[in-house]
Amino acid sequence: MKIVAAVGLSETGKTLLLNGLISEFKRRGLRTFGVKHCSHGFSLDMEGKDTWTYAQAGADGVAMISPEEYAVLGRTGETGLRALAERVFAGADIVLVEGGKHARGIQKIEVLRSGVSDVIQTPPGELLAVVSDLGVPPGTSVPVFALKQTGEICDLILSQEEDAMSDIRLEVDGRKIPLNPFVRTFLEKTVLGMISSLTGVDPDPRKITLAIDRDGPPERNS
């Protein structure tokens, strides 16, 4: 799965860019999903409707299902954008996010537009490319595209390497147990899913250590 966010000020053309990229990726036969990052929240459920009452009763998530489509509303808590996308869009080839400039660990394409925004604000380590009608901004070290160059932008996204598989090691009574890719992925997603709801935990942790001692804690000296 490749996840890329289009960031920039309002009215720069982020939605137009993502619509073009989605159409191009679908033309190439790739499973593509679009995400709108709403920093100020949103509401799809009307007060008084059945699903609204489920949420008010404390449900962790609700869903609306018809013969043609479905919608699921859940509580994100402190889950990072990447972990959430991998959970919701399992099997996706491409996930394109509109917004999310503060999301950690996500490559970003910044969109600039004359009269609206002409200064790059994305940190260099997260900036994949720039889409601009201003030419090449001074000091830019990443590729710069015009809004209409959707094919070239798709090529750049596809050229990026997939995230490296996490280093997961399992020891049982001091003996190292080899793990196949399926088990490694299952363990990682299960543990991330469990700790994401804990208060004070980084939503995108880089290292997790879990020890299970079935003998219990050592007895304290009285």
Protein described:
- The chain is of the alpha/beta class and 222 residues long.
- It has 2 domains: 2-45 and 74-159, P-loop containing nucleotide triphosphate hydrolases (Rossmann fold, 3-Layer(aba) Sandwich); 165-222, no CATH class.
- Helix content is 24%, strand content 21%.
- It contains 5 helices and 10 strands; from the N terminus they run βαβαββαββββαββα.
- The chain has helices at residues 14-27, 50-56, 81-88, 150-159, 181-195, and strands at residues 2-7, 32-36, 61-65, 70-74, 94-98, 107-112, 127-132, 144-145, 170-172, 175-177.
- The strands form 3 sheets. It has a 6-stranded parallel beta sheet, covered by helices on one side. It has a two-stranded antiparallel sheet with strand order 3-4. Strands 9-10 form a two-stranded antiparallel ribbon.
- α1 crosses α4.
- It is globular and about 70 Å long.
- The model has no long low-confidence stretch (mean pLDDT 81).
The CATH superfamily of the largest domain is known as P-loop containing nucleotide triphosphate hydrolases
- Using the alpha-carbon principal axes, give the shape: globular
Q: What proportion of the residues is helical, as a percent range?
A: 10-25%
Approximately what portion of the residues adopt beta-strand conformation? 15-25%
- Largest sheet properties: 6 strands, parallel
DSSP E strands, number: 10
Rg to the nearest angstrom?
21 Å
Q: What structural class results from the helix and strand content?
A: alpha/beta
Gap between N and C termini: 54 Å
